[in-house]
Structure formats: C-alpha cells, structure tokens
Amino acid sequence: MSKWLAALSLIVGVSTPAHANLILNGSFENNDIKSNSWKAFTAGTVDGWSGTNMELWDNFQRLNAFDGSQYAELNANGNGGRYSIFQRFSTEIGATYDVSFAYAARRSGESFQLDILSDTDSVLYSQVFDDHSIKIWSEFNGDFVAQTALTTIRFSTINRGTYGNFIDDIAVTAVPDFVASASSMSVSEPVGLAILLPLSAFALMRRKRTK
Ligand SMILES: [Ca+2]
Ligand SMILES: [Ca+2]
Q1: What is the pTM of this model?
Q2: pLDDT by residue (tens digit) across 38-48?
Q3: How far is the CA of 64 from the centre of ligand 1 (A)?
Q4: Ligand 2: centre distance to CA 81 (Å)
Q5: Ligand that lies nearest to the alpha carbon of residue 27, given by its number in the listed order
Q6: Residue 179: left (phi > 0), alpha (psi -120 to 50), or beta?
Q7: Distance 18 CA to ligand 1 centre (A)
C-alpha cells in the first residue's frame, strides 16, 4: 500500500482493502527449481500460465530475480519460433486495474509484446517492449479498464529463437474507485473525502501510483 493510501485510510477511518495480486504465480516461484539453474517447461506446466513452452531460471548466469529467486525466459526451449504465454483472471466491468512487471534482456535485439484483452478479444492495452537492458531489470507500470468479467494478460515474443526476454513479478491489482475517479472529481461534488483531503493530495497520490 502506498503511504498516500495508508494516510487516506487513516483519515477517513476505513481500512483499505488488500490489493491482492490477481495473477497466479506472477513471480514464477511456484515451480521450484534448483538455485543457479534453469529448467524447460512444456506448455501449460508452469503454475497459472497457459500458452507455449517456457523456461524458468533461478538466479542463473549472473542475473538474480527481480522478485524472489526465479523468473521466466519467454524465448523458451523448443522449436525456436515465437512464444506466447497468457493467463485469465477475474475482473469487474468498468473497474480500473494497475499492471506491472519487470523485464530484462539476455542479449541485444530482443523484443516482446504485452497485450491485455477483454473476454471478447477487445484490446485494452498493448505495448511492444524493445528497450530492455542486458541482465538489468526494467520496470513497467500501466493501467487498463476492464470490459468483461474475465480479462487476459498475454506476453508474446517478437524476436525468434530460444534466447531472450526475461520477465518477473507480474502483478495486476484493482485500483480503488476513489483513486480511479480522483482526476475527474470536482470541488462542487458533495463528497466528504473532498473536504477532508485537498485535491492536490489526490493528484499527488495518482501521480505516485502511475509513474
Ligand atoms: Ca520471481
Ligand atoms: Ca531459452
């Protein structure tokens, strides 16, 4: 929880619900492998994830995990073609969600695409990542608005071959309504929160969450 949210929940005297990660095994820790090793997994055998083959690495080849001790290499063992893993999770129609993860390259020239899709295949968010640093984690933070009761997050490799596109710490969390609507809140609205907290605090809170 951010300190702004913590402060807000103190001021208004309510407990902010836990912002549980909606992604199962987003940090790739559930299929435990030996330290300083890697292991190939066939499609669907990594907890929570569907799609193609993938690899898990455990603090291997001088790259420690961003979170925990394990991460995935999207360009997996196998046919050397394109790889794509995905997971479906429950969402509330119209609600805003934060999405975050960490990514790193194994060598130069790597790229992958993030897609967030509604259950009717509408694209809620899509971005190509080709700016990774070699064996240095970069962090992504974004958000989307759900359109259906189920939403899919998908990571697809763009460069071919069995090398590249490390990923870790994938999280999707619900954004509380009062934060999601803060930017559209007007001073004329008879909202108790607006009296208790200056609008600038909402703006600061929003900026902190989205940077
Ligand atoms: Ca991890
Ligand atoms: Ca590989």
Answers
A1: 0.79
A2: 999 999 999 99
A3: 9
A4: 11
A5: 1
A6: alpha
A7: 21
